[in-house]
Amino acid sequence: MRILYFAWVRERVGVAEEEVTPPADVADVAALIDWLATRSDGHRAAFADPARLRAAVDQAFVALDAPVAGAREVAIFPPVTGG
Amino acid sequence: MIRITVSPDPIDVAAELARLETDGAGAVATFTGLVRGDDGVETLELEHYPGATERALEQLARSACARWPLAAATIVHRVGAMTPGERIVFVGTASAHRAAALEACAYLIDRLKTDAPFWKRETVGGAARWVEARAGDATAATRWES
Prior knowledge:
The complex is a heterodimer of chains A (83) and B (146). With 83 residues, chain A is α+β, with helices and mostly antiparallel strands. Chain A has helices at residues 7-13, 29-36, 41-46, and strands at 2-5, 17-19, 54-57, 60-62, 73-77. Helix content of chain B is 35%, strand content 37%. In chain B, strand 7 and strand 8 form a beta hairpin. Chain B is globular. Chains A and B meet through loops of A and strand 3, helix 2, helix 3 and strand 7 of B.
């Protein structure tokens, strides 16, 4: 599974993307974030406040309780600020 | 006709307007967003999610076409580094009459603010900071839910 990070999430994690294989019990985006947080201090800092995180699964915006089973690409980022 | 552009190039409003006017409708409405220089902002940088951004804007334009009888919808968003006064976003709609064109144009810019993966980072006094999302933007987007 390819994980992408954007904006300050990317800066705190320290990489723009990484390839991971989460354990089978990681069912939704929130659980994936909890699991990713254990990878480094940077990940932990980026994911400290889940209320400030948004996500996309296979390039479609989703809520954090959306399933990740079978996803090829998951993106984690702050609330968007375009326009 | 839907036209979506996400690019680091400056936005040519005259060219976009001319294209909308060739779509054969009686009314064209446009919105242009400029980089604000409030609070001493020196530069603004736009990060986006390549692929997902274009897809989100395309979906947004399609939803506007489903809701109003549009002959055309154009969304142009700039990414990369910009300075105050430069154009950051252009939205244009063409329809037979003004009401649909004006409403669809307002819908597109309101929804773009909450539904498309862009992030602004501004530099003030040489220090860069990520711009926080505004609660007012979410409120503006929800007015189209009914």
